[in-house]
Amino acid sequence: SLVCLFVVLVCYVMIWTNGKHVKIYHKITVHLCISLIGVLVGFLAGVTRSGRGAVSCQLSGMALHFFALASFMWMLIEAMNILRNFVRVLPQMESKKNLTRNAWLAWLLPLGVVIVAGTARPVGYVSEEYCWIAEPGLFYAAMLAPVAAMVTVNVAVLVAAAFYGGFRAGV
Question: What pTM does this model have?
C-alpha cells in the first residue's frame, strides 16, 4: 500500500504542477496521501522498540501519533468538501483561502494534541516492546477521543450528504 500511495501522490502532484485542472479535492488527496505515508513509514520503521533509547522511542511514537491524527483530519476535510459540493446550489470558484485554512487546521491541531500529550506525559509513548501510546489514560484522551470525535462528525457529514444528495436527485 505504501507503493500505491506514492503512485497516487506522484499522479496528483503531476496534475497539481500542470495547474490547469487543479481542484480542491486533488490537493486534499495529496495531503491525505502524505499523512498516510507518514503513518505507514512511522509504523514500519518506528513502532517496535528493538533496543532503542527512550527519547528515540518517544519521538517515533509521537510522530506516528501525529500522522495518525492528521490522516483522520484530512479524511474529515475531504468529507466536508464532499458535503460542500452536494450543498452548493450554484457553481462557485473554489477558494484557496478555504484550503489554506483547512491545511493549517489539519496539520496543526494534531500537532497540538501530540505536543500537549508528549509534554504532559513524556514517558507515555514508551513501553517495553513498542513506541506508541503506552498509558491507557493518555491513549483515551489523546488518540481515542479525537478520533471518535472526527469519526462522529464524518458520519454526520455522510448522513447529511446522503440526505441532501438524495433530495436533490429526487430519490
Answer: 0.89
Q: pLDDT class for 153, splitting at 50, 70, 90?
A: very high
Kindly report the three-state secondary structure assignment for every residue of the chain. Answer: CHHHHHHHHHHHHHHHHHCCCCCHHHHHHHHHHHHHHHHHHHHHHHCECCCCCHHHHHHHHHHHHHHHHHHHHHHHHHHHHHHHHHHCCCCCCCCHHHHHHHHHHHHHHHHHHHHHHHHHCHHHHCCCCECCCCCHHHHHHHHHHHHHHHHHHHHHHHHHHHHHHHHHHCC
Mean pLDDT of 147-170: 83
**CA angle at 57 for the pair 54 and 61, rounded to the nearest 5°:** 135
